Amino acid sequence: MNRIIYIVYIFILSMLPFGLSAQKVSKAAQLCEKAKHCMQARDFDKAMSFLKQAQQKDPLFSDIYIMKGDIYNFNLKPDSAMANYQRAIEIIGDPDPMLYYIAASEGAKSGNYEYALKTMELFLHKGIQYSDVLPAAQKTVNNCRFAVEATKNPRSYNLVNLGPAINSEWDESLAALSADDEQIVFTVKRPRDKNTVCAFCLNEEDLYYSARVNGEWIPREALPSPIKTGYNEGAQALSPDGKYLLYTICDADFGIGSCDLYWAKSVGGKWSRPRNFGAPVNTPAWESQPTMASDGATIYFASSRPGGFGGMDIWKTTMNAEGDFSIPENLGPAINTPGDDAAPFIHSDGRTLYFASNGRVGMGGYDLYFSTLSPDGSWSEPENLGYPINSPADEINIFINNSGTMAYMASDKDGGLGGLDLYRFELDDALRPAPVTYVKGTVKDAFTAMPVSAKIELIDLSTNRTLTSTTSDPVTGAYLACVHTGGNLMLNVSHPDYPFYSENFQIEKSYTELTPFMKDILLQPTDIGTVVTLNNVFFDFDKAELKPESYIELGRLAEFLKSNIIRIEIGGHTDDRGTDEYNDMLSESRAKAVRDYLVSQGIDPARLEYKGYGKHKPVADNATEEGRAANRRTEFKIVK
């Protein structure tokens, strides 16, 4: 925060009516003049000593308190600054209105909102000649009115320090966690060392990480080369699947602007060489603070590039292919303001955006807000996270876990390990996003058991929208994919050399704590006799007409058939309820409905056989509802 030394003293002093005896004024004024010279030399301790002497000579000499207020103002002690400015106001009685403005501003910064509101309203009444600061004065009034009400209705907020495995005597900030909460990456500002490249930097920022083992964070380590350099790396994000590290490098001689976005990929547990996002994402301006949605493609970031609404705006780009990014799009006036809007975090639900702004009504400085993306692509009116999550100080970053219950942020509150520490706190119900869980496991070849790098998608069957997209690790086969609540979802696993694999997830919106799904997937070879269950083909009870949700999976099957010259048999199956004759007829009608749809998609009918097996080939026990549901299925088998 920029400070102008004794701006009040220089601007106002000549206008103040002292009304004191010449002898007393002279002695106090001489000491104040000495203090003034010390302030110009940035020797504030000596200046304060002269001012205390002047106060002993004449405790009603208003210059003393204005200058003391300026010293506290400059040293970021707004509470003490406000008290001294207010004392000067009381002595003068009817000061220049600018003194009201400065005193009220310091009162707002210190959280004395009722005082700041009353005093700033006095300025607006008396200081209309100061047109340049009237908008800022009105903003302070609006903030104070909001803050007075917010402090009467505080949010639930109990900060828990993440402990010495994460925090240190240095500054830790900007936590980013993987979707399973088992990995954390964060920014650490430490003193420069011999490897620091920046010639004028007293500190260097680096990325550190830790893993959770048996519920506890293990001691942190710096991300090694090639992530770690002698430049400043920070303001990072992990993709929800943990595959991509998106982060910022500043003041690098190989960059495009002052700060650029970079990405690296995890392969076999190691990070690849980082790569600059390049144009059109990075520009000669400032780009930083990326966050990736669970679709694996949409990236939000902050930038000072031209074409925005304020100093810093929030933009988004799409990763069309690995390392290929679309032209960034501004999120528009629903999110961005004439002030600064930055530090975006998109939750794994894909629709709840948290961000920091100093351009909206709030508690003062940067506050944290959230907005929700509507199905039509518009953003809701941002909502302030409230007090005490927001405070008179700057709140600049927040991370919310998958279930939407736990938030992570940095604070320099008393009792920490030093500087900024990382904390967690349980998020108030009213501020929570839609809960998200995940499916986690490995993808391997069913015959060789070798890892397969397959594409994994979770698709909303009602909208055909891809909610999650990731790939399994080519070295280990490991994958992690977010599972959204409140929808009928298809898990699709695909690779050009294998028939696709599918699952179905239907999770109610009411869930807040979700048990993750552990699923190792074996991809069957494209060989004669291979059977694949179509878990996302649906029929109404006792009917053979395909439900519209089935078309997405059958479309994938049509694509597979177009890419592979094979002939398949489509098989329909039922549970054991009903007669043999009825079940045989129903299952055959359903198999034929699938065959007819594939023909409508351009598949040669000569390549499609169909048969109804009724209840004769169960795969589970019909004694339970779960078993009967498994037996009611549609499959295809490669026959040639």
Written overview of the protein:
- 24% of the residues lie in helices and 30% in strands.
- It is elongated and about 115 Å long.
- By secondary structure, it is of the alpha+beta class.
- It has four domains: 7-152, Tetratricopeptide repeat domain (Serine Threonine Protein Phosphatase 5, Tetratricopeptide repeat, Alpha Horseshoe), CATH 1.25.40; 160-431, TolB, C-terminal domain (Neuraminidase), CATH 2.120.10; 435-525, Carboxypeptidase-like, regulatory domain (Immunoglobulin-like, Sandwich), CATH 2.60.40; 527-640, OmpA-like domain (60s Ribosomal Protein L30, Chain: A), CATH 3.30.1330.
- The strands form eight sheets. Strands 2, 3, 4, 5 and 6 form a five-stranded antiparallel beta sheet that branches.
- The protein contains eleven helices and 35 strands.
- Residues 1-6 and 10-24 have low confidence and may be disordered.
- Helix 2 runs parallel beside helix 4, helix 3 runs antiparallel to helix 4 (62-74) and helix 6 packs antiparallel against helix 7.
